[in-house]
Amino acid sequence: MLYRGDFVHTVQLSDIMICHDYLLGKSSMFVSMRRPRFPAPSYRTRATIPSFLYLQASFLLPTFCDLHLHAPQFLYQGTGLHLPLMEWLNEYAFKAEERLDREPDLARRVYTRLGERLVENGTGAVLLFGTIKEETNVILAETMQKIGIRAFIGKLSMDISTRPTYTESTPSESIASARMFIDRIRALTAHLPDHARLVEPVLTPRFVPTCSDALLRGLGDLAEQTGIRVQSHLAEARDQMKAVQESRGMSDLEVFGRARLLTPRTIQAHCTYLTPEEFSRLAQHGTAIAHCPLSNAYFSGRQLALREALDRGVRVGLGTDIAGGYSVDIMGAMRWSVGMSRISEGTRLEQSGCQATALIQATVSVNWKEALYLGTRGGALALGLGGGVFKIGAPFDAQQICLLNPNSAPAGIGPLDFLASNLQSFELSLEMVEKWWCVGDTRNRTGMWIQGRQVFFG
């Protein structure tokens, strides 16, 4: 299949590249990308040419990566956001997860709808927290594989709980279950060719308050033996950090470090209370951060110091954190990340009195281009994937964004309008991409491919 048109990607943090009128060849990977040697046929004759997709008034963009989402919590998405974190977990999260472990038919319905919503919103790769029970997480993996999403599935490991019915009884039981889960998920796709194996297991100690030191050490050993990814929560909220300090006499960063769970294949969510020096420690370990600006606004009491983390060399991507966040849309996470960073920048300048020239020239805010990088390439790098960018040999994970119906100009598709533009001959501009980034929605997404297979038809 050949695609001709405009391609947009972010190779570097602050740079957006628009490749105008390129010809792209693909299978499950990108196999060629070059300027065509022949003029484009007219719009009227394009449909008669086989094996071509012409991107009329649209562009291809790498799919989004969601680095932090609690799959069972999709059951109550958009509700119960009024409590502090530790109370919220006991009142909502644990109950929902335990219910799905009891009701496999409900779990399959929830996970199927979640997968459909992810595809609808352009998410092609997602790092998922599941539940305690192995079978329920296998359902989650089967569902994501069938829908065609690149999914990294985490069976929860937790031997401490405020709900006696929702816990694993001993560290050894929890570690044995995690090992079994790894084997089961790998067996699920073992019969498929490499490019079609879309789901992978992830070690998932929920967070320090639900895990004994013995369990964390055992998971550290297992991570070292298997080389698989690790995910958890780190320095998220004051009540969580206080609980760790009182029970362990140290920070949760130190707890994870002693258990050897800070690795180049680890992604830690939130990290809102880390200091610049602690960001440097994460960078030294190669550990990435899942930045969840919406749920941070509800539960953390502060935002991640995003610019400082990036400046210290930490890999960062975005997460929706369902259901601590209320939307599965990574575009919302991108917009929130910029908005919250602008607030942080304003607070910094106010506190400084705007006296020092060097302080004024420096900034802790991020812009929309950088946020787009975090939602695509940044997330892919955090997951250790070769995607998030258009290059030969990268997985063909792409979404088609349509801006304009040629028959209805200057009104664009969905919420987009181009009222002062001359659209007689369409030429994609950076301003058009920015307009879509700010106000576009699912109506602009007309196709999506994962590993070369089309999984969404708009």
Automatic annotation (TrEMBL):
Acyltransferase in keyword set: no
A single GO BP: guanine metabolic process
UniProt entry keywords in alphabetical sequence: Hydrolase, Metal-binding, Zinc
A GO MF label: zinc ion binding
InterPro entries, A to Z: Amidohydro-rel, Metal-dep_hydrolase_composite, Metal_Hydrolase, Metallo-dep_hydrolases
Cofactor(s) the protein requires to work: Zn(2+)
GO CC term, one of those recorded: cytosol
Location of the Amidohydrolase-related domain: 59-406
A Pfam family: Amidohydro_1
Taxonomic superkingdom: Eukaryota
Name of protein: Amidohydrolase-related domain-containing protein
